Amino acid sequence: MECVHITEKNVTGSGLYVVSEISNGRHILINAFDSFKTIMEKTVPKQLVVIHGRACAISALPFLLYNRIFKRNPVGYQPHTRLRPIKKNKVFLNTFFDIIFCLNTQNKQELVKGGFKNVRVVPNPIPMKRMYGQILEKQVKEFDVVWAGREGPSKRLNEFIHTICQNKKITALILAPKFERENLEDAAKCENITMVEGLDGSKFFEMLQKAKCFVFTSNENEGFPISILEAAFLSIPIVCSDYPKYREMLGDYAQYFSSWDELLTIIEEVAKNKEIKVDQAARQWILKQYSPKRIAKIYNEWDKQ
Question: Which of 156, 151, 193 shows the shortest CA–CA distance to 176?
Answer without folding.
Answer: 151
